[in-house]
Design goal:
- The chain contains 5 helices and 14 strands.
- It is α+β, with helices and mostly antiparallel strands and about 220 residues long.
- Strands 3, 4, 6, 11, 13 and 14 form a 6-stranded antiparallel beta sheet that branches. A 4-stranded antiparallel beta sheet has the order 5-12-7-10, with no helix packed on it. It has a two-stranded antiparallel ribbon with strand order 1-2.
């Protein structure tokens, strides 16, 4: 969906991320390692922020973004609750994230997991934009096997079965992709020399969810 976040909202998110990052570390959210101690791993210097909505009012507000919530509820055909926010810097040279299904981690019962992946700046093949496998949304949860950690900061991956076709998306600043928890997705390294690929990634489940991995609690009411 194009332009879910306005240019001002994208800029505001980047500004808040900068302000949190300036603190160096926030327990339960991130801990940055100075470049001089990171052994060349830029993701140690720019680690993703986990659950920034738990420590920052603006991230909480954007987890509840009215246009996101309206789309989620249309897709889910019920009320949704927020379970996760993440902010990715993905600086030049950063590794990607191997193919996976979010439902593998979320373990919702019933399984209604939906992601809202918002580009805070243009994302494409060069800077490690999101890759989704078309034809994968109704697959069962697949086995995870060890993967190439030279290209992925995560260590395990699913192998897309026949009929699941990887496609790299081109997303403009403010665009949001909504996708279900069974969709196989991931990304390649950021091969740009200059461009970050900053994104806000939030996860939701239907309000009728009975059980869920503990990592995603407490859930957040969206209205
Ligand atoms: O943004 C990426 O590179 C991958 C993000 C992702 O796979 C996820 O949030 O589950």
């Amino acid at each position: 969906m194009e332009g879910v976040f306005s240019p001002e909202e994208c800029a505001q998110t980047l500004e808040r991320a900068d302000a949190l990052y300036a603190q160096g570390r926030i327990d339960g959210c991130f801990a940055a390692v100075p470049a001089s101690e990171a052994g060349g791993d830029v993701l140690k210097t720019y680690p993703r922020m986990m659950h920034p909505h738990r420590v920052d009012e603006m991230f909480m507000r954007f987890l509840k973004h009215p246009r996101v919530v309206a789309s989620l509820e249309q897709l889910l055909e019920q009320k949704a609750v927020g379970i996760q926010s993440m902010f990715y810097w993905k600086p030049p040279g950063a590794k990607g994230q191997a193919f996976h299904q979010d439902s593998f981690y979320v373990r919702g019962e019933p399984d209604t997991c939906l992601a809202a992946w918002t580009a805070l700046e243009d994302a494409d093949q060069e800077n490690g934009g999101l890759i989704v496998c078309e034809g994968s949304k109704d697959l069962p949860i697949l086995e995870m096997i060890p993967t190439d950690t030279a290209r992925s900061f995560t260590e395990t991956a699913v192998v897309p079965p026949a009929g699941a076709t990887p496609r790299t998306l081109r997303m403009k600043t403010g665009d949001t992709l909504f996708f279900g928890g069974r969709v196989i997705h991931g990304s390649e390294p950021n091969r740009s020399r200059t461009r970050f690929r900053r994104s806000l990634i939030c996860h939701y489940v239907g309000a009728d969810t009975k059980s869920l991995s503990e990592f995603y609690r407490p859930t957040v009411a969206l209205r």
